[in-house]
Every structure is written in C-alpha cells, then in structure tokens.
## 1
Amino acid sequence: DAMVIQNPRYQVTQFGKPVTLSCSQTLNHNVMYWYQQKSSQAPKLLFHYYDKDFNNEADTPDNFQSRRPNTSFCFLDIRSPGLGDAAMYLCATSREGQGFGQPQHFGDGTRLSIL
Amino acid sequence: DQQVKQNSPSLSVQEGRISILNCDYTNSMFDYFLWYKKYPAEGPTFLISISSIKDKNEDGRFTVFLNKSAKHLSLHIVPSQPGDSAVYFCAAIRNDYKLSFGAGTTVTVRA
C-alpha cells in the first residue's frame, strides 16, 4: 500500500543534542509537510517542500530545519532541542497542481521527548 | 492566531445515535474545509471535505454542512459506531494548499 512512513516512532534526545526525524513516502506526491503538535493543540505547520522549493512558516524557530534529498524522503533537523520542542511531529504529503482541496496524507508521527 | 476553532474538546454519544461536531472559522478566504479522524498512536486520516461553494456533502454515514454566513461547519455521524471513537480535526484551506487545523474534538461512542 502506498503510504507515508515516519521513523522513528519515538525519539528521546538530550537537551541541546541535535536530532533528525525522517519521513518517506511511496505516493509520489510533490509536496511534503512537517507539523508540530503539542498535547490538545492543533497541528502547527513548520514548513513544507513544494517539489524542491522550501517554504518556511514565518513563526518557525531557526532551530528547525529541513532537507528533501529526493521526492520520496524528507528530514526534520532540530539543531539544539529545548524542553519546549517536546511534541509529536507529523509528516504529510499531498499532490498539488490537481485542483484545490487535495487532502494531505499523514504519517503516524514521531513522538519526541527531551531529557 | 487560531483561524479554525473547535470549541468542544470532547463529545460522548450513545452507539446508534447522531454525533454532531462543530467547527468555526474566522477567515472568509478559506476555499475548502476538511475533516480528519485520528486514532491514538496513528496519524490523522482524511474523512470528508466540502468546497466553499457548497453547503452540504455526504459520504455514507458522514455528512458535512457548511454555513458560510456564520463561518461555521459541522460534521454529522449517523449512526455512531464504537469504531468512530477518535479525535476529529477540522481543517481549512485558503487559495493555497496549506491546512489550518482546529485543536480537535475527542469523540467517545458508548455501547
């Protein structure tokens, strides 16, 4: 089945120690997104790639970066995680250019804990 | 600034009865509205959507109603089943493709 896979499902890192979360997709979608979701809050868009073009949200901290080496893979890098970065991180994909309202397809998320 | 709001964090309903989930938005430029369903330890999955030019969309047991003048939409689930117990997110798209999410409503269907 075509899907969005996030690894790892759970990640524990130390305060200030860089961490990378990964996302892969077999849907061949041209857009990939990273969201941060804290408990009982709405998922918050951090940034997205439209094909190779990186689009950062205005309020995304500089601490968060992303890489998309090819269509299938996208990475979220947190350079110096703080306690406030503990959250669920969701990757999503969509096929744009096919008209409005295309639903995004989500992975199961990576739960990040900071010690 | 939260542009999509789900003011009821939880809803409990008896199996077989109707579940009504509500969502309000502030941005009149939204073009599409979507509902996502999320089980614990899984990512959100797309459930149903509606274009801003329509006022109703139905898919099996799920119906979404849109009231543009009130900037309000609702999701009706009839009849509710135990497998419907999940968190439901309302989301909206402007003239780009980025989603604005509500904080979610946790639905519990009682046997």
Note: The interface with chain A takes residues 2, 4, 9, 31-32, 34, 36, 41-46, 49, 51, 89, 93, 95, 97-104 of chain B (CB under 8 Å).
## 2
Amino acid sequence: GQNIDQPTEMTATEGAIVQINCTYQTSGFNGLFWYQQHAGEAPTFLSYNVLDGLEEKGRFSSFLSRSKGYSYLLLKELQMKDSASYLCAVSLNYGGSQGNLIFGKGTKLSVKP
Amino acid sequence: DGGITQSPKYLFRKEGQNVTLSCEQNLNHDAMYWYRQDPGQGLRLIYYSQIVNDFQKGDIAEGYSVSREKKESFPLTVTSAQKNPTAFYLCASSPPGAGFTDTQYFGPGTRLTVL
C-alpha cells in the first residue's frame, strides 16, 4: 500500500524557523515533491528531491533520506504570507503509474505575529 | 502567457445532473491529470493521460469520465453515478521527462457544489 504521513497542523512565529516532516511508505519511489497551497488556491511547486541530502532554495530547504523514507521542509525567516498548507507528494516509479504522485494530507501552517 | 486554465472557478449543479469541468493548457505538456481535494484529505488522482487519445484510471475513477482529443485539453465529466461529487477539482500537467519525473503544474481549480 501507499502511505504518506505529515502533521495536520503547525503554528510558528513570524521570523522564526519551522520544520515540516513527512514520512512515506510507497511501492516504488522516484522522488519527493513539496508544494505550497494557500486556502482555495492551486498548489504551487516548491521543491523536488531525488537524491539524499539537503536542497536549499532561498528561505526554503528540503531534505530527503531515501533509506529512512523521510523528508522535511525547512522554512526560515517566516513571514505571514507563509501561512498555507504544505503538501508532501511521492513520485512513483512502477508500471503504468510511472510519474504519478501520491499526496499526503497536507500540513496547515499558521504564522503568528 | 503560458499556463493552465480551468473554468468555471465555482460551479453549482443539481443532484443527478452530469457536469463537465474544463481544463486547458498552452504549455505544450504531454501529460495531464485530474485530482479531487476534500477537506482534511490529500489530493486523490481521478484520471490521467500521458498522450493524446490515451488515458488511464486513477485511484478514484468511479463516477467520472474524461477525453483527450487534443493535447491542450483534458475535460472531466462528473456523472450522476458519482456518489459524493461536491469537492475542489484540480487539473495538472507535466512535460515528458526521463522516468516521467517532471514537476506537475496545477490549474486554479474548480469548486463544484452539488445541491
């Protein structure tokens, strides 16, 4: 079966750092995506990890450990506009589902002043 | 201006009626996808198409149908057989790549409410 777990909600303070974790158990693995989704809007791409390690992109970084089935998204210098849901998604690599994504339920981040 | 468009943004229908949701892209992407999003749930794959005139069922295809007659267009019909059609529907597309690992880009979504 396919399973992706991430916390349902998190709260952090403006200017702080927050880490959103994602663990997965899937049949086949190409890589792992993180998307940001503001309420009522479409998800927008943040990062894609294929190899183990940390990928840094401005205030956002994403880490992957394939052997542990674990990823995290790190947001630094939090801003109010970072209040959104963050979706973890695994890209599959088997059969007819090649490239298809399995999404976690998302983590709703609230940034407080 | 390249992108993915979905129309309308809000759609209301009476129970028992079929309804078709539009999805158009001018990104020259080969692959297109339809997802459904419910409160507290992750995005769930309804149908996907990797090339024109071909499409595959996703995890929750029952009560839905699609067509892919043109590369740019992938309309989704929600039929009366879908037991709980009220949801936020998202269309996505991605370019072909080695192992189909390219990023999926999403349209703005259509919020369907069945009364």
Note: The radius of gyration of chain B is 13 Å.
